[in-house]
Batch of 2 targets.
Target 1
Amino acid sequence: MIPINYYIILSAILFSLGVVGVLVRRNALIIFMSIELMLNAANLAIVAFARGWEINTGKPFFEGQIFVFFVIAVAAAEVAVGLALIVEIFKSKRSIDVDQMSSLKG
Amino acid sequence: MHLSEAVNTGFFFLAPWLVFAPTLGLLINLIFGKRFNETMIGTVASLASGAAFIVSVLLAWSVAANNGEVVRWQLAEWIHIGTLQLDWTFRVDSLSTTMMLVVSGVGTLIHIYAIGYMHEDVRYKNDVGRYRRFFIYLNLFIAMMMILVSGDSYLMLFVGWEGVGLCSFLLIGFWYELDTLGRPSWANSNAAKKAFIVNRIGDFGFLIAGFIMFWNLRSLQFDQVFAAAEGASSGVILAITLFMLVGVAGKSAQIPLYVWLPDAMAGPTPVSALIHAATMVTAGVYLITRSAPLYTLVPQAQYIVALTGAITALFAATIAVGQYDIKKVLAYSTISQLGFMVAAVGMGAFVAGMFHLVTHAFFKALLFLSAGSVILGVERGHHHAEHAHHGKGKKGKKKEEKHHDDARAEEHGEVFDPNDMRNMGGLRKTMPTTFWLYMIGTLALAGIFPFAGFWSKDEILADAFSEGFTLIYWLLTIAAFFTAFYMGRQIWMVFFGEPRHAAAAHAEESPRVITVPLMILAFLSIVGGALNLPGLHTLTAWLEHTIEVHAGEFVWSVALISTVLALVAIYISWLVYGRNPLRAGETDPLKRRLGAIFTVLENKWYVDELYHAIIVTPFVKISQFLADVIDWRFWHDWFHETAIAGTYNWLSRIVLNRDIDQRGIDAVANSLGTLTQWLSATLRKIQNGFVRSYALSVLLGVVLIIGYLILK
């Protein structure tokens, strides 16, 4: 059986990839994908911890897994809103470069 | 006993209406009274008071039906703190119902009388709008008096105590912008303030008694206090009872706090009868009777109370001899009679005190109201005479007409005083009904057999005699002698002889609305003695349920001595005033004979002057010192002007120059501005609009927070 730590490490790697993606890419779609990556890294960690709890105590821990479903549902909703925003922005600016959306600067 | 069983056997549930009925009456007059005419206003107020009387009768019947058992009807919770539980509870027992009957019964008659009296009074004083206010105050007084007598704790009693004090103040100062002669002045308003302030001194005593009671006996509810008092040290009880006596001296006008009552005659006559003779001033007697279980524990306090009452009775009776104002004579007579009651309850003769309280309410209300009728009659006569003189002018223009010179008025000073007995004389012909009513009141007050006053006063004297209070017995007997004398003097001066003034010659009898209540009171003054006839002891048996009593015996020698003394006194008064009636402009015959002694009595033993010298003047001096020297010269002139403003100016002059102001202070202010500008210019660069830099900030923040949480 694969140790729990491996899942945690994988989750950390995925999360870091997501962070780097958000920070360095300018394409809004890529940034969205990176955010999804971070969310799923978190999901992976949650499921891994739930499983770890089950192994240690011998009792199933469904809350962790159920929680992941919530996260997936929320992420889907968020993507729907976000993509709609991107489409609207693209209509007016003909671009989805986030650095061009800087009209609110101080 | 509490609620449950009592409810089924009687009208105890009506108890709150003792207070609600008059309150309702005053609210109706307050809200809708503007649209009512005078009769309507008076009827509403009288009905409200009459409803309270009916409730009182039903309550008394219920108490009798319950064999005099105490019923406590709780209306509302009031103060619940720890073990202290004070509620608005109506205490219905034989003592409180006796007071309720007197207050609402006499009160209702006086309401009816006032319909007629105030009708004329507001016209003489040119302010018809004040008619409604008078009845609102009267209803308020009845409500407050009911709270006082029905209270189940000293605190509830105190609420009523203060409430009636307020009504007294409002009604003494009813014509606050005039004096007793109707001239513009602050005299009435000062009389009201005097009553209020002197009563404050008494209330202070009552409050201290309440505090000591609460601190040592841990309650203010009557039964709990009396139960706790059994085990308390006698020093505590002595302190409570003596401080309570201060309160009694204030409210019931005893030495040394009686000085407000004569001045209280500034109020309209129905007020003098209701508040300052029949009901409110007897509250002190009621308080002592209610506190009988406390007073019987400390005989020293009882003796002090009895002595206070007896000395007051004699002292006030002597002053009454030297007064010319018909209402002032009755005022001092009231103080004297209150002294009788206080002496009685002080001796432990609680029934005798309550008996005299009830009969006194009848005959003194009768006397005051008849005096009011006399005053109105003389005022009518005055108008009549004046109009005949000038042949013009219309009613209700008195104030202006006062300044017209009247040949008679000039002899007696600037204005005509309808209260002055020297302006009266011969009124028995012009006002026969009032004369007979006044006679009945006089005979009752003088203690002539078989009128009410004879029985009640005699019971007090007999109790003093048989209980061995020799000094008090003699003080009261001499006071009774003077009582008969000054009442005889009043009768001869007012009703006999020839009119000494045109006003008296033209006096007219009062209308029925005034005389009918008087007739009822006169009837009560005649038969009131039947309440507690020797041998029957009805009142004794009635009050026995509430307080410890002993049936007073009838002592023939005492009755004989007091009756003979009263008759002798009336005879002497006839010798002095009746045989050769006073003529207009003459000096009082007693003054001619007694000289300086009479002058002292006329000036009320100079007590007001004494109080003025030892209390008022130093008080004013201290106030002036505080105002002129401390407040104005020290605080304002020196501290504010010199110390603070001066220092400030001096400092400003130092600071206001180029070096300190512009280079120092301005530089600090300017550099603050520059700093803020630089800071904002720098900080706005963070807000660059790039989403990714914001994301980086968030990331750094999260890393910092998590790092701190992990590493801490």
Note: Chain B is about 75% helix and 5% strand.
Target 2
Amino acid sequence: MKKLLLASSVAALMALPAQAADYTIDTQGAHAFVQFKISHLGYSWLYGRFNTFSGDFSYDAAKLADSKIQLTIDTNSIDSNHAERDKHLRGSDFLNVSKHPKATFTSTKVVAKDGDKFDLHGNLTLNGVTKEVVIAAEKLGEGQDPWGGYRAGFAGSASFQLKDFGINYDLGPASSTVYLDLTVEGIRK
Amino acid sequence: MFKNRSTHYGLVSVTLHWLVALTVFGLFALGFWMVDLTYYSSWYRTAPHWHKSVGIILLIAMLFRVGWRFFTVSPLPVATHRKWEQIASKAAHFLLYAGIFAIIFTGYLISTADGRPIAVFDWFEIPSAGELFARQADIAGDLHRYLAYGVIAIAVLHAVAALKHHFIDKDATFRRMLGRKN
């Protein structure tokens, strides 16, 4: 009887529509990625990522406009798979990580688009400079995970000029724009 | 002729001294200059490649130089040198040797932090020992720079002291490093 009650209440919970809920980004299990790419000489892409970051978001499928996200990135953790390049990227020509060890993104507004797509407006602080950035985002999915938790996942992309964030090292005419590529999976708190 | 005597330095020690001196100052200048090269400079790739290659060759020369000290005597101090001068010059020599080895080691740690080897003029490669500690390239890079400033400062002091002995004291200190006798 107890078991049946438990089972039916679990079933009832699962049947509920997604409510506004707070999520922690799953950095523990590394199901979230902060990646970037930038043109190399105009001939190919250079990919890199930040290995250490943390964040939370609130998400409500029914009231998307109330959703928000906060992300803090350890700029020291930049990784482009080349130690000497990463050293250069951490230095004063690029990210100035000794002066600006954190980059942050804080959403200010969510604008719904078709289907699961939406625009995530927010302030990106990088190299000590704060600028508004719009992330073109999309919900990839949500639901129970196999281990008793509830997850929701999103992908987003944005681009900005390096010089907008005070990074003036000249990588060539084709390499002034950096493209961010985010995948964020949250575990409901 | 090749080996040292108690009164003078042999050809091997003299040649190594001046080659190492030239190389250390050359590497310092090259390193100081290359870190500010722009990305489209034609030297952007070549200068670090030469800097690393010459650095490894300097390591080989320095290892030979240390080994050579065991094969040959060290000339006695110039008789007119005071006790504190002898101690100070020995200390400076030790710091120069230790500093040069430390600079080469930290340079190795920068370039091999991600497992990549160091190519010496495309003749041969020095393999990486892997990442030995966190933030290796950054920490080793800072040490490499400050050690280099330190070694150059001591080398300048060493040169000024030698010239002082030559021009003011008018003793054999400097001439001995040209292979002359006391």
Note: DSSP finds five helices and two strands in chain B.
